[in-house]
């Protein structure tokens, strides 16, 4: 398993933090979650090195075939033994929460009758991101334990406190997704992260963390993955026909910590925050069910028209003027270089400016119609490319680990 040494990676990636005037925070356009909390990074807080609870010696792609001769074993999770061929609803709570009252959140666990890897699905690490919650629910309730090879663990609402308040953040405005793998003696965020990571994530052989766009932005369903890591590339290839963006994970994200611990992880982005979007939910469910099938954990039951993932480079188009942004394109639109993407009208002077696409490509993310300030990242244009994996690997090998460089092919 190709993994970068923890110390060097942790040291180098702080440069991803936004350095502009704060009108928007999409410095790295493909970070899991752009951060606007009172404390944007866990760098100030010493992170505990991620240590997996069990060995990950078998490559993910071979996990089912190499497991065939052995027997399915009970899955030990949160103090319970989940016998092969059964599904259970457990509850997880991090200790020492804000009010002193434990707040628990459901964990859905299916242990298959047949041996195989353990795939974990997490959602609502940002409490206002609802699509992933429904994706996890649909995937988990569709699985027949008697036919599953391996296990699937779903944690639909990781940030239950943010979820209750309709907020991206924890009650103290910290972004939980900057604190993994956590620290048992750190801030509340670091403690919650530590508990989740050690009680649940350490049992996974692979992880899919579900997110949506943030701050009134919406994303075409897409996978964000560090394509320098061969196990992560294997994971992206399992989803079928989905957009894949190379994205070096930000320090402190669940994706970063899991991959460091030897658990290949990707983020799936689908739709926008604070609403349930059925088309995006269905797309996400289909992608994960295809993954279960390509990993050999379930029998094939659905196919994409074109099962290949599509690799993209990308770039954000930003507003040059402030005002009311109205889009002329929608998510998934194909655009040509020079096409009108949207207009920004100053509500006082009635002056109108237009945003044009600098590239031919596809709209993979966009801001909802809203009032914007100059510099606001409005349209995310994806450019299909066959060489994204090779470029990521070449740059990953050429640079010192974690020293920036490759962001997403056309970094800002
Ligand atoms: Zn998120």
What does this structure look like?
Helix content is 21%, strand content 26%. It has two domains: 6-310, Zn peptidases (Aminopeptidase); 312-398, OB fold (Dihydrolipoamide Acetyltransferase, E2P), CATH 2.40.50.100. Helix 3 crosses helix 8. The chain contains nine helices and 18 strands. By secondary structure, it is an alpha+beta fold. The longest helix has 17 residues, at 278-294. The chain has a five-stranded mixed barrel. The chain binds zinc ion (ZN). Residues 32-33, 126, 129, 211, 214 line the site of zinc ion.
Architecture of the largest domain, according to CATH? 3-Layer(aba) Sandwich
Q: CATH homologous superfamily name of the largest domain? A: Zn peptidases
CATH structural class of the largest domain: Alpha Beta
- The separation of the N and C termini measures 31 Å
C-alpha Rg, in Å?
21 Å
* Strand portion: 25-35%
Helix percent reads 10-25%
The H/E string reads HHEEEEEHEHHEEHEHEHEEEEEEEEH
The CATH topology of the largest domain corresponds to Aminopeptidase
Shape: globular
Strand order of the largest sheet: 8-9-11-18-16
| Total tally of structural domains | 2
Number of strands: 18
What are the key terms here?
four-stranded antiparallel sheet; five-stranded mixed beta barrel; OB fold (Dihydrolipoamide Acetyltransferase, E2P); 2 domains; 412 residues; disordered C terminus; alpha+beta; Aminopeptidase; disordered N terminus; binds zinc ion; 21% helix
Topology:
Blueprint: H1 6-12, H2 63-67, E1 75-77, E2 80-82, E3 86-92, E4 105-111, E5 114-123, H3 131-142, E6 149-155, H4 160-165, H5 188-199, E7 206-211, E8 217-225, H6 230-237, E9 243-246, H7 254-260, E10 265-271, H8 278-294, E11 310-318, E12 323-327, E13 334-335, E14 340-345, E15 352-356, E16 361-367, E17 370-372, E18 377-384, H9 388-398
Parallel strand pairs: 5-6, 5-7, 7-10, 8-9, 9-11
Antiparallel strand pairs: 1-2, 3-4, 4-6, 8-10, 8-16, 11-18, 12-14, 12-17, 13-16, 14-15, 16-18
Bound molecules: zinc ion.
